[in-house]
Amino acid sequence: MQYNVTIIGSGPGGYVAAIRCAQLGFKTAIIEKYDVLGGTCLNVGCIPSKALLDSSEHFINAKENFKEHGIDITAPKVNIKQMITRKADVVKQNVAGIAYLMKKNKIDVHTGVGSFVDKNTIKITGKEGKESTVTTEKVIIATGSKPTPLPFASFDKKRIISSTEALELKEVPKHLIVVGGGVIGMELGSVYARLGSKVTVVEFLDSLIPTMDGTMGKELLKVTKKLGMQFYLGHKVTSIENKGKEVVLKAEDKSGKSIELKGDYCLVSIGRRPYTEGLGLDKVGIELDKGKIPVDDHLKTKADNIYAIGDVVRGAMLAHKAEEEGVMVAEQMAGQKPHINYLLIPGVVYTWPEVASVGYTEEQLKESGKAYKTGSFPYKALGRARASMDVDGLVKILADKQTDEILGVHIIGARAADMIAAGVTAMEFRASAEDVARMSHAHPTYMEAVKEACLAATANRPIHM
Predict the structure, then answer these.
(1) Which residues are catalytic, by number?
(2) Per CATH, the architecture of 2-146+273-342 is what?
(3) Among 337, 340, 338, which residue's Cα sits nearest to residue 313?
(4) Does domain 353-459 bear CATH number 3.30.390.30?
(5) Which residues contact 119 (CB under 8 A, 6 or more apart)?
(6) What is the pLDDT of residues 289-326, one digit of tens each?
(7) Which pTM was predicted?
(8) I need a surface site. Which of 65, 77, 83, 426 has the fewest CB within 10 A?
């Protein structure tokens, strides 16, 4: 079995890279250790979590908002078994779609653990130990990442759980303790808060979603408190113990004052780490740097025919970032000259309201000494938001003080995940805040908040505030 390109890993980075390679005329193979394609994102990450987020949002709307809309129903009940079943069906459909795309593009799929024999030979070890090899001109490593445990509390997958187990719970927790107020913790915490769980978040830093603009974290804190979620910010977890039917967490604040929390589950969501075990990187002279595979600006490793993309290399651990890198590597192999502007890869938190950001945060601009101006506009001033009862949130625009070029777009509010694409587009074409403010935006829409925030940034002259 000889190939032009072999990809190890079939997540968003891997399968997209494989498709682009095939489109460009390369004989392509993909190696996946599990029986299903799609990696973490499709199987135990992005897709299933969004399925549960949507189900829980439907439930809380039926429970709390339908009556206001003039829809009278008997009190809804949570059927967690059906929610998990629906989630599994969504995953199944997406995975089947990836398998179809592999066949359509004539990509060979090999199931098993791929490891290097040398830079042009990869051994594939199947479940029952059966081994085979492929030879290849080039390789793309796209093995993704896995949840990071606390050093003193490994995942027991019963009471101390990762996001993977949180997506498979057979009951709604009475009290879910969440360690980590980042994207995963806030998304899954909000799922179970909507379904009736008491949810307590313990975060080491002083703000939620700390990699995003500070305003977003403050607003998310406000809106999730409305769900009844409780927070201990600036607290360091010191121990987590599974006591059988409950889990006990201890933490302390910066002054050393201790707290103790008891719940039936503890979700540890402090981040993810690159998954490189079993690759045999030593066979090809690749040494890890802080757990990640070092690459150059073209995503090439120390070995001249081996590339790495996605969560195993530097940068944000995002599915769409991995996809862009997969396409870039494939096109470079074909002699093209693609590029990625990493500043303009958006980040999204799929709580409700959603949070989405692209570009610089205000904290980054302050730290760099860049002269900037800001404009914001609240959702509660939007006719569309009032009509849909989605009045929480705002749009924040950061622009260069001299040139008015947009430097950052930050949104918390309904449909922020979709709206951020407009911010990416504007910044890719280096639009000014005035450019966007002078464009016609359909009325009534949530996107009018972006126009108004740009007006506020340009000349402090929003129309509707």
Answers:
(1) 443
(2) 3-Layer(bba) Sandwich (3.50)
(3) 340
(4) yes
(5) 139, 284, 303, 304, 305, 306
(6) 999 999 999 999 999 999 999 999 999 999 999 999 99
(7) 0.96
(8) 77
